Amino acid sequence: MATQQSVGAPLPAPVRIASRQAPEPMLYHLRTLWLTTRSDFKSIIIPETAFGIFSALSGPMLTTNQTPGLWTILSRLPLVFLWTWVNVLIFDLANQRLTASVTEDSINKPWRPLPSGRITELQARRLLLAVLPFGFLIACYLGGMEETVAMMVLSWMYNDLGGGEESYLVRNLINAFGFMCYSSGATLVACGSGEITLNPEAYQWLGMIGGVVFTTLQMQDMSDQKGDKARGRGTIPLVLGDWVARWTIALPVSFWSIACPLFWKLHPYAFIAPIILGSLIGLRILLLRSVDADKLTWKFWNVWISSLYLLPLIKYHTG
């Protein structure tokens, strides 16, 4: 028989049933993926997708396809975009999950998923584990497998082995090879046939693009100096000084604006866009030195390099 509870005795604490937090809606996760790759849309995803389409349409200038079909190649644009985006996502997850990257992004890009608290480093690592095999499957189906594997190796060198922290020369060199892989893979996916390959001129052109990136990519570091300093990263503006770094951008941009059209032996009118854009970048980087101005100049840099990507197609149609 139960005993009666005495007057004034404390009531037993109510039993709390543990409940799991409701899963986030799909749109939340899609936005997380968008925020992870957001800053690379203007610098890699859109320009390299354009490189692949332009190069495939240039036919014998860069590939073994003698008669490129306009609509056939354009119909593969979503596939080129997907291949490029997935490979960028792999690199970004590998990079942004690092503790040093979270420190930098909390200053330079606080809206990214980790510094904003949308995901944890553990969740980012697990997402990377899921995305890696997906990247392999995409490459198996669409092409560009060698480039995908090469970029995974470059990502490992840059992030896990600290190549991005070693020196600005090593950092720019790894980035240059990365751009060459994006460009080559995007072109093969745009061509869409296993029988179509890059020709010798394509590898020379990829080498030039690598040179462009190696000598001018420090443009992206100009507006990130505060975060890079907090991270301890030795970028060109932090090692050589802001003013010297600006000249290391202005001079090579001017050189490549002329050298790339010369490589294709184009008519003088084809020099107009690269030279105008290159001159604009050179003037802006030397005269406008605020963080906001550097961010806008970086956007112009992406338009400028995209104008270089168009040169083989111009050569194909002008002879």
Characterization of this structure:
The chain is an all-alpha fold and 319 residues long. Helices cover 70% and strands 0% of the residues. The chain has helices spanning 26-37, 41-57, 70-74, 77-96, 99-108, 121-142, 145-160, 163-166, 168-191, 200-216, 225-231, 236-239, 242-263, 272-287, 291-309, 311-318. α4 packs antiparallel against α6 (121-142), α5 (99-108) packs antiparallel against α11 and α9 (168-191) runs antiparallel to α10. The chain is globular. It starts with 25 loop residues before the first helix and ends with a helix. 41% of the residues are buried.
Biggest sheet architecture:
none
Q: Compute the number of helices.
A: 16
- Percent helix, as a range, is 55-70%
Shape: globular
Radius of gyration: 24 Å
Count the beta strands.
Answer: 0
Strand fraction equals under 5%
Give the low-confidence spans: 1-20
* Average of pLDDT: 91
Look at the helices and sheets and give the structural class: mainly alpha
Distance between the termini: 103 Å
